[in-house]
Please model this.
Amino acid sequence: MAYNSGIISKFAKNKGRCMEETPMTERGSEVQTPEKKSGAGLMALGVVVALVAIVAAVVGYHYLYAQPLLKENEELKELAELEKQEMEKQYREFDLQYEQLQSTIKNDSLIAQIEEERRKTQQLLEELERTKATDAAEIKRLKAEIASLREVLKNYIVQVDSLNRLNQSLNEENTQIKAQMTEANVRITSLSTERNELKDKVDVAAQLDATGFWVTPKNKRSKDTQKVKDVKKIAFGFTIVKNVTAQNGQRIVYARILKPDNSVMGNKGTFAYEGTQLEYTEKKYIDYTGEELKLTMYSDVEEYLEAGTYKLFIFCDSQMIGQTSFTLK
Model:
């Protein structure tokens, strides 16, 4: 009983202390009981849980959706930048190809056209370099320009190739003709040398011989001149020596004047000589009677003449009967 009384007494004291420590509201306000404190705590906890759930949802969305989209956007930006770099490379290749085309032709008109296209290419390249890789509309326009430039460049490549092949063919033909002319001229010179060396040994009974050559260049007023820029006509003459054994009758005398580059001046036609056809400058019909015959011939200058040594050959009866040379300054 004493034990129980002690417990009861101790409980009473604790209860009194609790009553003293319990706060009271002014003027009869209701006391905050433990049950009400517990309800407020639960409500606060609910708010915190809701906020945590919202944050978790936002973070989850970022990792599940937003971050992959950002990563995809970065990849697209990288691809756009790579595409822009490739376009710039193509523009520079076009510019280089235009430069190479210009170096292979000599046609001024075509060179000017190619230069215009080259400037256009350089301008478009500058526009591309100033354009952001993400500017889809501008990139699309400049990409379309590449296709157009490629077609234009292809057309010029075909033109230049065709022109170069034609020039090569003409050059080969010109080289062949010059080689034939040089060969013929060398042959004539060689035969002339042989003729002079064997002059006293061959039978010249029926062959005419021209000697006493003279050449006088004339200007437009028919005055003598030695200045190549003033020469408008060349007068020349020679004497066909007497040959009583030669057959009398009408003959054609051909004069062949070679310019310093061994091309024929005038080129009025061709005549047969030593199994080939040679070009001549002038021709003249004569009536030979076996007596000495002085001849004068004229050749109008209708082409460009250069300073240097000119050679004059005279042919008759398919034989070269004389030669001389003269100089224009």
